[in-house]
Amino acid sequence: MKPTTLGELKRKKGEPASFRSVREEIRHNLIQKLSAKEPLFPGIIGYEDSVIPAIINALLSKHNLIILGLRGQAKSRMLRALTDFLDEEIACVADCEINDDPFFPICGVCSKRIQEEGDDLPITYLSREQRYIEKLATPDVTIADIIGDLDPIKAAKQGRELSAHENIHFGLLPRAHRGIFAMNELPDLAPKIQVGLFNIMQEGDVQIKGFPIRLPLDTLLVFSANPEDYTARGKIITPLKDRIGSEVKTHYPDRIEDGIRITLQEAWIDRNSSRTIVTPEFITEIIEGVAFLGRQDQRIDNRSGVSQRLPISCLENTVSNAEQRALRAQEDRVVPRVSDIYASIPAITGKLELEYEGELKGAVNIAKQLIRAAILKSFERHFPNQQFDQIVHWFDLGGEIQVSDKTPAKEYFQKVQSIQGLEETLEKMGVSPQDDLPTAVSLIEFILEGLYAGKKLSRNEKRGYFKEAVQPEEEFLGDPALSKRSFN
């Protein structure tokens, strides 16, 4: 049974010989995890050789740190994961606003209570999750929000000096005493509040309404910021930046495989549904390719970046569009198609910050071109040496197919099964329309869209897939390898 008073705590654990700060606690637990080769930062993908080692170095050095990165680079997630390096729970003085250590109190109220109550002082416990406090910086944040405020009425009633600890209504930072205080989007914080932060970091004191208050807080301060915000919306004042021990920079996934793993991990696609949902590999690859190509495209503002939330939202919408079709057609299996990606353009456009040339084109057109370019790259990867001459020849002879994202799988296959060479292609890939018709249809559409993206076929909303004379090429300003492709 846990001790409930200071006396019981002393008898069970003994009085500590010396004070151990939260940074020493984190360092100790991190060393144990490293020695035991335990996984660090579970769920964080693609940072194993870059960001994570830098954060480990900062924690081993007992540094305050700032994580710099563009939108959707898991900055907040990494800050919240720092709680894994705290003890499971700690003892603190009951009813104390700042979770004071009963053996090493910094609060005037708690010091007085210990003197008066002695070993009968009530003890409570704080979990590691409760020791993490996070605040989003906005220009309207005040020193009272972060540090605290003095209550003159309380001081007058009790006949105390205004600067006494008993009169303080503590803010978020003192309430993070013996824990981690995280401030997101630090440049948005007003300079005078940043000064208050660096005073706490450097001197352990602060002024509230002109009264110097000594608060030797034991807190790990961690921050996040978008590097482009230094000048766009605000900046970190030099004295504060100088006192942040380590600056760690994040990045988007370097490899498309890492991006796909992140998207599959975060996207809500395992749904409580009576229907089986199967997402083909090429669908997730195309969706992730949209984000990768967008980060290279000159028409998209790369200072803002293309957030990892784009492929996550797009995949969720893609599955939802396929789910809607399956519900309407009473199909048992939900298998997304390429047309479902096009139907998910609303999940893409809101996440693209366009340059002037992109604004002229429009977000919807840019999204369509990115999808088509991603289809072509995925198609060439899955079919590197296959020509599909029979299929193209069928369209050369005047064949046309009119389908849409709403066409049920059975009706879709009836329309395309007359295309020469199509069933042989499915057989080579081990996909049987008799055994899994929705997957077969999804693969067929991928092949048709790949031929369209490679300018072997034409397609429009009115006539579907058909063959006509090749149109003049239009330059794509994204991936240099695709600069001579056409995107309608």
Architecture per CATH nomenclature, i.e. the level-2 architecture of the largest domain: 3-Layer(aba) Sandwich
CATH superfamily descriptor of the largest domain: P-loop containing nucleotide triphosphate hydrolases
CATH topology of the largest domain: Rossmann fold
Query: Structural class of the helix and strand makeup?
Result: alpha/beta
> Helical amount among residues, as a percent range?
40-55%
Mean pLDDT: 88
> Can you summarize the main beta sheet?
5 strands, parallel
How would you sum up the global shape? elongated
Number of domains in the coordinates?
A: 2
Draw up the topology in text.
Blueprint: H1 6-13, H2 22-35, H3 51-60, E1 65-68, H4 75-81, E2 89-93, H5 108-117, E3 123-127, E4 132-136, H6 143-146, E5 148-150, H7 152-158, E6 168-170, H8 172-175, E7 179-184, H9 191-202, E8 205-208, E9 211-214, E10 219-225, H10 229-232, H11 238-243, E11 246-249, H12 256-266, E12 276-277, H13 281-294, H14 309-329, E13 333-334, H15 338-343, H16 346-349, H17 356-361, H18 363-382, H19 389-396, H20 409-416, H21 422-428, H22 437-453, E14 458-460, E15 464-466
Parallel strand pairs: 1-10, 1-11, 4-7, 7-10, 12-13
Antiparallel strand pairs: 2-3, 5-6, 8-9, 14-15
